[in-house]
Design brief:
heterodimer, A: 294 residues, mainly alpha, Alpha-Beta Plaits, two-stranded antiparallel sheet, B: 294 residues, alpha/beta, Glutaredoxin, 12 helices, 59% helix, 4Fe4S_Fe_S_CS (chain A), metal ion binding (chain A), 4Fe4S_Fe-S-bd (chain A)
């Protein structure tokens, strides 16, 4: 394989993921102190799924912040968070999943553990589950399941999100006796979910991203209109199918270069023998027929 | 290929090291707290079990006499009888049934009750030491000097603590569902502890600096839940303000003694849950015992 021609983004993706995770959780001393950063950075949300209650977190989680606002008695919809999410989605789409999300990186690292690897091609219908999670747990339940004072719960954070246990509950309870004393049944339930995602990630590639993540679902909706796109040069393509075989998100890039599930990881680019697949950023004709114009 | 393997190895090592670092800090912290608990227990001559066994011995020595006292006891034990010293309770029971006994018998019974009273006091100080050991970090820290006001505008300062045998301070904010859901329980607690010389005080972080919007919202919530106990605020830049804003989990409920010192480990979570109320009651009991011992 000729490495020199590979786009540096795809080539150094692991480093970019590590760097993004570090920047998202830059307040490292807080891990030892068992406290949270509570400064102005928390008024902004980070692009990836990263718990507000992670001791190191530099910003808020977009999914968590959205639910907090929708669930409050004062507001019924969060234009601020939705606006930020649409901006992220239009600029980058699911590139965020592939490059910037700490929980995506966590699952990828787990997948590097040697074990029999299973294909998720037959489990494609499960992909639609994440849209249900987005609609029901992030939007509808916090909005509608409220007490007499109009206050709702952040249902996704409270009952499903494994990142909250990994980044919030676990490190905080290790160093903070008060938090440790407060752990109960809900913690046990979510620790089981985290364990299931961890074990699932070893055998499957990014199971949480594919099937459950509401943030991934939101970016998936914007993937087709995002400025960050994949382009297949039909002149160079020899239709060998290597890209589809290499794709761990079960996308055939030659048919649907901007599929909702494509996280722009660039594995197809690495697999392509003729360098027919490229990243493209910006406005203009995004279709794969573009290069047929001479 | 080699390059990506090296990358993977490096990344997983980084992750492993960072996890190991977390684990290290936590285990050393927990071992420190457990060793301090062990040393404090060793310093005490007798454990709670031993003391309770002594009490039972005293009672069984004059079994027949005590049976008579127990038989004529008032079965409707109220919360106040339960929270007073058991020795005092026995003594008053003996007084009530005085005419059933000879002078000799009466003397034996009152002497026994006196002994039990002394042992109960030892147990109370033990419980206090226990609470101190488990709350090593919070224990002994005093509520900072402050000058503020309640939500009606009446001035409040540190003399608040001196006026009460103990003060339960609940930290909350308007948008916090679990906080709002325990307001009625805190009000009930306030009514209950009045008789013991205690008071429940609320500090709503959104009312700091006399923020009128926050105060109006807080008043509405307090009225809606029927809570009538005092809520106070002060300047957010003051030491007390920093104390309040450094709290990262809501609701958090502290118990302070007459000198304004923290008793036990602050409680995280609402007292509408039984186990949380029990944990708070433990701190209250410790504070009461401490105040009575003076």
């Amino acid at each position: 394989m000729d490495k020199k021609k590979l786009n540096p983004l795809a080539r150094f993706r692991g480093f970019i993921q590590a760097g993004a995770t570090l920047l998202t959780n830059i307040h490292l001393p807080n891990f030892a102190k068992g406290t949270l950063y509570q400064g102005n950075g928390k008024y902004v949300c980070v692009p990836g799924l990263n718990c507000y209650s992670c001791p190191g977190a530099a910003g808020a989680c977009p999914v968590g912040a959205f639910q907090a606002v929708v669930g409050s008695s004062k507001f019924r919809f969060s234009y601020y968070i939705t606006g930020i999410l649409i901006l992220f989605g239009v600029l980058l789409g699911r590139f965020i999943c592939g490059f910037l999300c700490p929980f995506g990186w966590f699952q990828e690292l787990l997948h590097k553990i040697p074990s029999p690897k299973l294909s998720t091609k037959k489990l494609k219908p499960l992909r639609y589950l994440k849209y249900a999670v987005l609609l029901v747990m992030v939007v509808l339940l916090p909005l509608l399941a409220v007490n007499e004072l109009g206050m709702g719960d952040p249902f996704f954070c409270k009952y499903l999100c494994p990142q909250g246990v990994l980044e919030g509950a676990l490190p905080l309870s290790l160093t903070n006796a008060g938090i440790r004393a407060a752990l109960g049944k809900l913690f046990t339930w979510k620790a089981c979910i985290l364990l299931a995602v961890i074990m699932g990630s070893v055998v499957f590639y990014r199971p949480f991203c594919k099937w459950l993540c509401p943030l991934g679902a939101f970016y998936a909706l914007l993937n087709k209109v995002s400025l960050f796109q994949m382009r297949v040069d039909t002149h160079k393509c020899v239709s060998c199918g290597a890209c589809a075989r290499a794709c761990k998100m079960d996308v055939d890039i030659t048919k649907t270069p901007n599929h909702a599930e494509c996280i722009r990881c660039g594995m197809c680019m690495k697999a392509c023998p003729t360098d027919a697949i490229q990243y493209k950023f910006g406005l203009g004709d995004q279709s794969n027929t573009e290069t047929t114009k001479e | 290929m080699k390059f990506s393997r090296v990358t993977a190895l490096l990344l997983s090592l980084t992750l492993a090291f960072s996890l190991a670092a977390c684990g290290q800090g936590a285990s050393s912290a927990s071992s420190a707290s457990s060793s301090s608990a062990a040393s404090s227990a060793a310093a005490e001559t007798k454990t709670e079990e031993q003391l309770l066994a002594e009490e039972n011995e005293i009672l069984s020595a004059n079994d027949a006499l005590w049976e008579k006292v127990f038989a004529s006891m008032d079965k409707n034990m109220t919360e106040t009888t339960l929270s007073t010293n058991y020795g005092d309770f026995l003594r008053s029971s003996v007084e009530k049934t005085k005419d059933q006994f000879s002078d000799e018998e009466y003397k034996t019974l009152t002497a026994d009750a006196e002994k039990i009273r002394a042992i109960e006091e030892q147990i109370a100080t033990l419980a206090l030491a226990d609470a101190a050991a488990s709350g090593a970090a919070a224990q002994g820290t005093a509520f900072p000097q402050f000058e503020g006001s309640d939500l009606e505008g009446n001035p409040v300062d540190n003399s608040l603590f001196a006026g009460n045998a103990f003060t339960v301070v609940n930290f909350w904010f308007n948008g916090c569902k679990p906080c709002v859901e325990e307001l009625d329980d805190l009000n009930a607690l306030n009514e209950k502890v009045k008789a013991q010389g205690g008071e429940v005080v609320g500090i709503n972080t959104e009312t700091l600096d006399g923020n009128q919007q926050g105060i109006d919202a807080a008043k509405k919530l307090l009225a809606a839940t029927g809570a009538s106990y005092r809520n106070i605020y002060f300047a957010s830049g003051s030491d007390a303000g920093k104390f309040a804003l450094n709290i990262m989990a809501f609701p958090t409920t502290y118990v302070f003694d007459r000198d304004g010192n923290v008793v036990g480990q602050p409680l995280l979570g609402g007292i509408d849950k039984e186990e949380n109320l029990a944990a708070l009651q433990k701190n209250i009991d410790a504070a009461l015992a401490k105040d009575n011992a003076k």
